[in-house]
Design a protein that fits this description.
The structure is a homodimer. Chain A has 36 helices and 31 strands. Chain A is an alpha/beta fold. The first copy, chain A, has four domains: 235 residues, 2-Layer Sandwich (Dna Ligase, domain 1); 91 residues, ATP-grasp fold, B domain (D-amino Acid Aminotransferase, Chain A, domain 1), CATH 3.30.470.20; 138 residues, Phosphohistidine domain (Glucose Oxidase, domain 1); 274 residues, Phosphoenolpyruvate-binding domains (TIM Barrel). In chain A, β30, α35 and β31 form a beta-alpha-beta unit.
């Protein structure tokens, strides 16, 4: 419940009050507190907004609180709102907890009316300025408060410019502007049925209300959905004394960063425009100057600005971005915040601040994120290739994609099959487009955000995507897309080349070379090999990544292993920092050339036939294991026994049925296929994911798991004899009850004993299980007694806990579910803490309780997801296992998880 | 740990010590305590046996305890084991906690040797008897202790009978028997390499050990597996002074029941054989007499026996069966226990004992079971049809099946398609036989027990089955089965008729008429309509079922509803006592003639097409609802919105592919099929159970659920206008998160409001959800806030919690899992308490906590399973919903659950 205080003077708040005062308000208060030159003002809280949105009226106490805040403001400046001599004017700006740039309303120059405009003219000594300000107020007010179409005002203005025979509105005279004010007021009267209010306080109250309401404008709602910002936060409103950058050449306005946000290199960066207001900088009407130019034209202000920026950076201990205005030689700070930066800059700035003693190593680690690191790892478009930026969309799935534009999924499939790289361009995608999406190297849509069908599916497939590039006019029937780019209309047709950057949302014309990123090259090839070839910024970024990643390694409790199925993967993973393999699938050992042997195993009609076929597979499997164990020598390698149902190794049933039917129709001999079809029918399952697989297969098909265990044990013997230190672990998949694992453990132990006897070498290894069924989690106390370790298979656990299979549903309804808010993020991307995560927590607690030495890890894809890694840290796992290229991310986030958890427990 | 006492005198124990003394030992002790004439003796405990089985030797303390128990026995009788004048002989019998008739060993006449046999002859005055007893000891001992093949003894005996030129062994003289003893001892010496031991104590100790060991004989293990008796219980051993029924015409032996166990009618029933031992009664060598015969030949003993039986029944307050021996006019009780009875007798006896004041109403209810009632409900083979009993097997799945024998599953399918009723006869079944099992009316196997593949699959399909009929010699290649029946070899060939009783395990030759059972007729037609047509026993059973069922209704807290999808089902369910419908599926409303409309909905390319097709379906759905609600007027009807994925309403994909391929091959027009195939491919799911179904469908396919809700609301309006009191409830399937339900609830409420407005009648109804996904259970606290009720869909919840689909796995590995002890019973039959049940418990607790008025029920098939009903009672549900024919079972068990739970909490 609100505490009853809805209005805070800038001098009352601080930067920690973002939830109450919004980001802008909290930082204005902070700067005021620091004694920086902030125009005085006050903030109406987000609580007031939430009240308004719920009750459809302002909280009763608000009016009197605004009155007293306003009086304080007037007293401090010695000016009155609406005064006919030297009137106080205020700006009314939104300021939400999370930045939503341009999404909500702003009204400037509040307080002007037919009388005070004269006072402003008098006080500023600039009549034109006064009437121009009044005109601006009326149009802004008309649009935001009185719901009058802005086009009406702009047309009237254009007309006046034409009539006056001048080039632009800035050349209009005071008298001409005065006429426009008359016209504007008439427009409001006609289109809203009401007068533009002359009472300054009414203007103020209605402006505040309009900002409240703009929280729920369509574009604001859309933006929030895309950016996953909660709908019930509301916005604060900042009421601030106006200062003017357009009072002559000794006035001006600018934006600046305390360091370069693109590369992270030190030194201030910014744009300045003399004799202009903030909007003019944003609108890009005139070419801006640099801060160096300001230093030469106005050294005192420039010095003050530099000092202020240093002060802010020291105070915030981070890169800040600011907005400022110079009014007749006096500097005013209008806004500051911790600035956004690129991924590379984030690492570099964190290291700089650390070296400058502003932050600790822990803080430096907390300042970077796994998703920033992930951006630095994906292949990149060559920089400065000079290609034209066609448009920008939402960066929906990272990575670089270069290919030929196609509009039709069927053509995408066709072209891809003929070896071409295609980029599928659609207005938006739907489940019918899936095949085309699979065939494409990248996806580009005109509509939809990060949770659109295209984005969800692309991320699921690990494919670059740019979505919601709204400037694109996609004509799927004509197979063309048109876009206004830098004032020019460009047409793309089927077959034209584009290049997408899924991390930035940029779309370029033509083919841009794609290369491994400097950071991934350093990780795979080593610092010394890569550093000489890098430019200064890349080199700096790589060194900083190295430094922070190594620090994360010293901090983290979670070990990081890799999901890797081959020697090559294992080697790569080790370079990327893997401390073992958490999931070595053995399915691939049954594919390729071995398919025929596997078919013989499956189709065996006698146990001798089966045994023979298994025996032929054994040496091949052993060699696979030797290769992997050798690459990971000295580190644990968790081998999962065969998981998929046997029919996955046989031909597709429908295809076979068609083949048999056609052969019969043609009178050809189909006996081999018919025999195969009988077996396929026998093994057919309507829901193979819920069928005869994993440990069930091991218990029902004699010799199958024994084959694998024997091959692994023999590989172990071979490597130990060669002087190695292999550390295999055996993992039984899909266990649902303790007895399954006990039975399997008996069989495994028996095989190991046989190999021990044969080889004369003691062969023993940890035996554990996947926890990937709800029942396994729920009965972990029992299962743990038969297990040396648990590894959470969170992919399958997510599928069974939710009762959906990723293959089937991701395309079918995930986008709709994200749109409708059932998911805030796909549960396959980040672990669903209250459902799946609760099972993990139950399992950890009850497993450890009944078996205190139990080792616990996770090998689902969540093992490489930043948010999920924090959860796994909190819940107390020993390790996460991730695909090789997520390992650096996992190392970093495992370290961050320690810092973040410690910080959370400090504040608790 | 054993407390160190391994031997209890009969005078020390009581009937509550079955776990320690075994069933036989505890009851012998109880009878001793009651002062009934039990020959003195002592019991070696199950603990001693378990120790022996674990350590492979007797517990050290056992020897001295046996010594002192034996001394007490000798002292009380004044006779000594092995005495040369009047020796004490003892029997050594197994006695497990659960009866395992004939499975373990017995050794009689222990204590006889070359010297004491003379003493026995002297004391009994019957030399022939003495040598016959000695002969019996040697052969029993040789077989059980010394591992000599029993055939060697029986052949030697046959040879002696032949040589003596007599008809049977009973005509052999004392001298001839003496010679046989010499031969028997020689057999033992030759085949075991050891002498038959002359030391009586050695005989005793080795006999006890042999009984211990017989616990783990193959046949005992097999029996336990079939009967689901734990393998680690062990058996007690009863050592009892011998009494002899074969000492002349004033001696004899018999078995008796205190009431008729077949019909439950009052009065003693039994068999008596003069001048005979117990084995002779069992072997059926001579025709037995009735107890009435005994009364005329030996009235004093008969009277004492009758009094004893009355005493036992009063004491045990239940039907008892007994074994007794008369030794020279003196009655000895050798065994008693609460007797087995048929299902009908169980109800009748419970009522009788109640009327006699021996038991309370609660106890009467506890004395009968739901599975007994279920037996009384299945169709029955006509009694006294006179057909020959071919053999008996394990009653694996109840019900009557009459049909023609087939041995080949393919022929079963073929014949069934041509309209014949077939009974599939196999040595044992495996997953390949599934189609044949589906096609058959009943299944008969020669091997396997209640957990065999055939049994599990048959129960899953609700099909009668008799398994493990080991007398059958099945020759599948020759398509014939031979069986010895009453000494005659009978051959059955393909096409011959048999009749199976799956409740008793009986297999009859020929066709026996099948009819509804008297109990089911009474339930459906009413008592008055049925009673006159029944014989006395059936009438009594029906009256008793009625009485106990009505009592259960007064006791139970759980309400009982039906799973019913049509007016007919609803009406039937109401007769059977349903208090509403807990699950009305709506899938069938999309089948049959409506398929075409449904196809139009699915294939619609525009929303108009879809809306039109939906509109055409609406009135049909409304009529369905009217019919069901009318039948259940005044009672709640829970309607589940559409659950299955849409492709279930379209043709099979593989079939369609074949059709299209063949049409193309033939150059025929396949465009309609091709169009259909595109849609089928689009909707194809690799795991439909985990796909786009339930609430997902409702949220993704516009108008689908609204159609159903509108139809239901309109049906409601129609019925209320006609003066009815319909009580529909809307159930949303497959909810996994609270938001899904909230969204669906909004849509449903909107539709109801529309119908309210249209009709001018307030239309509102409870809206709830299935809890059938682990995530729903785990987030019940949230979901409950949007739900008026939860209904546990324990079928799907079992499938997702375990991660297997019933369709795929029941045939594939359930039998193996039961065999291996992973399951003790199929989790689809009885709820898996520690896994699935734990989720139910979590959901109940957290759902109620966040929504105190939440109504809770279950609509999975477990709702009709006795053991599961007890769980649902304990966990606090409000109702169970079961298929109509399980409703009486559910009513009964819901009542019993109250009694059993109260008893359990009393003893706690």
């Amino acid at each position: 419940m609100p505490n009853g205080t809805f209005v805070y003077d800038f001098s009352e708040g601080n930067r920690d009050q973002k939830e109450l005062l919004g980001g802008k308000g909290a930082n204005l208060a902070e700067m005021t507190r620091l004694g920086l030159p902030v125009p005085p003002g006050f903030t109406v809280t987000t609580e007031a907004c939430r009240w308004f949105l719920t009750h459809d009226e302002e909280p009763p106490a608000l009016r009197v609180q605004v009155t007293s805040a306003l009086r304080r403001l007037e007293d401090s400046l010695g000016r009155q709102l609406g005064d006919t001599h030297d009137p106080l004017l205020v700006s009314v700006r939104s300021g939400a907890v999370f930045s939503m740039p341009g999404m909500m309303d702003t009204i400037l120059n509040v307080g002007l009316n037919d009388a005070s405009v004269q006072g402003l003219a008098e006080a500023s000594g600039d009549e034109r300025f006064a009437w121009d300000s009044y005109r601006r107020l009326i149009s802004m007010y008309g649009r935001t408060v009185m719901d009058v179409s802005p086009e009406l005002f702009s047309k009237a203005l254009e007309h006046a410019v034409e009539s006056a025979g001048v080039a632009s509105e800035s050349e209009l005279s005071a008298d001409q502007l005065r006429s426009i004010v008359v016209i504007y007021k008439e427009i409001i009267r006609t289109h809203s049925g009401r007068e533009f209010p002359q009472h300054p306080r009414e203007q103020l109250d209605m402006a505040v209300r309009a900002v409240f309401q703009s929280w729920n404008s369509e574009r604001a709602k859309l933006y929030r959905r895309r950016e996953r910002i909660a709908d019930d936060l509301g916005t604060a409103v900042n009421v601030c004394a106006m200062v003017f950058g357009n009072l002559g050449e000794d006035s001006g306005t600018g934006v600046a960063f305390t360091r370069d946000p693109a590369t992270g290199s030190p030194g201030h960066y910014g744009d300045y425009l003399a004799n202009a207001q903030g909007e003019d900088v944003v609108a890009g009407i005139r070419n801006t100057l640099t801060l160096d130019d300001l230093a030469s034209s106005n050294p005192a202000v420039a010095t003050q600005l530099a000092q202020t920026m240093r002060r802010l950076e020291t105070h915030y201990r981070d890169l800040c971005d600011i907005e400022f205005t110079v009014e007749r030689g006096k500097l005013w700070m209008l806004q500051t915040r911790v600035g956004k930066r690129t991924a590379g800059a984030a690492f570099r700035i964190a290291c700089q601040l650390l070296d400058e003693g502003l932050i600790t190593e822990d803080e430096a680690l907390a300042r970077v994120t796994g998703s920033q690191l992930a951006q630095l790892l994906v292949p990149q478009l060559a920089q400065n290739a000079g290609n034209r930026v066609l448009t920008r969309g939402i960066p929906a799935s990272p990575g670089a994609a270069v290919g030929q534009v196609v509009f039709d999924p069927a053509i995408a499939v066709e072209w891809a099959e003929s070896g071409r790289n295609v980029v599928l361009v659609r207005r938006e995608t739907n489940p019918d487009d899936l095949a085309g999406m699979v065939a494409s190297v990248g996806i580009l849509t005109a509509r939809g955000g990060k949770t659109s069908h295209a984005a969800v599916v692309a991320r699921g497939m690990g494919k670059p995507a740019v979505c919601g590039a709204e400037a694109l006019r996609v004509d799927e029937a004509e197979r063309m897309v048109t876009v206004m780019s830098e004032g020019e209309q460009i047409v793309l047709r089927e077959g034209d080349f584009v290049s997408l950057d899924g991390a930035t949302g940029e779309v370029f014309l033509g083919e841009i070379p794609v290369s491994s990123s400097p950071v991934s090259r350093y990780l795979l090839e080593g610092m010394d090999a890569v550093l000489p070839s890098l430019n200064e910024d890349d080199a700096a970024a790589v060194l900083c990544v190295d430094r922070i990643l190594k620090y994360a390694d010293t901090v983290r409790r979670l070990r990081v292993r890799a999901n890797a199925d081959s020697g090559l993967d294992a080697s790569r993973a080790r370079h990327l920092g893997a401390e073992g393999i958490g999931l070595c699938r053995t399915e691939h050992m049954f594919l390729g050339e071995r398919r025929e042997l596997v078919e013989r195993v499956i189709l065996a009609e006698t146990s001798t036939e089966r045994t023979d076929a298994l025996a032929a597979l054994a040496p091949l499997q052993r060699d696979d294991f030797v290769e992997i164990l050798r690459e990971m020598d000295g580190l644990p390698v968790t081998v999962r026994l065969l998981d998929p149902p046997l029919h996955e190794f046989l031909p597709d049933r429908s295809d076979l049925m068609v083949r048999v039917a056609l052969a019969q129709e043609r009178g050809e001999d189909a006996s081999a296929d018919e025999k195969l079809l009988i077996a396929v029918n026998r093994l057919h399952e309507s829901n193979p994911m819920l069928g005869l697989r994993g440990v069930r297969l091991g218990l029902v098909v004699p010799g199958l798991f024994a084959l694998q265990v024997r091959a692994l044990a023999e590989a172990y013997v071979e490597l130990v004899r060669a002087g190695g230190a292999p550390q295999p672990e055996i993992m039984v998949p899909l266990v649902g009850s303790a007895r399954e694992l006990r039975l399997m453990r008996e069989e495994i132990t028996g095989v190991l004993a046989e190999v021990s006897e044969h080889s004369g070498m003691e062969v023993s290894m940890p035996i554990g299980t996947m926890i990937e069924l709800p029942r396994a989690a729920l009965t972990s106390g029992r299962i743990a007694r038969a297990a040396d370790f648990f590894s959470f298979g969170t992919n399958d656990l997510t599928q069974t806990t939710w009762g959906f299979s990723r293959d089937d549903v991701e395309a079918a309804f995930f986008a709709a579910y994200l749109e409708k808010g059932v998911f805030t993020i796909s549960p396959f991307e980040t672990i669903d803490e209250i459902g799946v995560g609760r099972l993990v927590a139950i399992s950890v607690e009850e497993g450890r309780k009944s078996h205190p030495g139990l080792k616990l890890g996770v090998c689902g894809e969540h093992g490489g997801d930043p948010e999920s890694i924090h959860f796994f840290h909190r819940v107390g796992l020993d390790y996460v296992s991730a695909s090789p290229f997520r390992i650096p991310v996992a190392r970093l986030e495992a370290g961050r998880a320690v810092i973040v958890a410690a910080a959370a427990s400090d504040t608790r």
